[in-house]
Write a structure and sequence with these properties.
The chain is mainly beta. The protein contains two helices and nine strands. β8 and β9 form a beta hairpin. The model has no long low-confidence stretch (mean pLDDT 95).
Length: 108
């Protein structure tokens, strides 16, 4: 898996989650609800969730240890067809700051 970053001008970048850290500000958690439900029901797993953000920074060193003090936000449509924070559905939730740590996203 790689992080896909699509910029407003249409350019696309792919990054290995273990090589970089994403710092996202003014975010909204989005997904295709019908596609997520199909995956949850046993269908083929495809990309169906993303994070919209107003600003993004990509760090390649001196990573923030967000997993030590942030709240993990999860998305796995095989487990549940929603973005999850503390066991609650947070689809469409606005988040001030999200930080990636490897394959995870953390609200800090």
């Amino acid at each position: 898996m790689k992080w896909k970053i699509q910029h407003p001008d249409g350019t696309i970048e792919y990054h290995s989650p273990t090589d970089i850290q994403l710092l996202m500000h003014d975010c909204i958690l989005k997904n295709h609800k019908k596609t997520a439900q199909k995956i949850y029901d046993g269908g083929e797993k495809v990309v169906c969730a993303w994070v919209l953000c107003k600003s993004l920074a990509i760090k390649k060193e001196a990573f923030i240890q967000a997993d030590a003090h942030g709240e993990r936000i999860r998305y796995n449509p095989r487990v549940t067809p929603h973005w999850i924070l503390d066991g609650e559905n947070v689809d469409g939730m606005s988040v001030n700051k999200l930080v990636s740590v490897d394959f995870g996203l953390y609200k800090i």
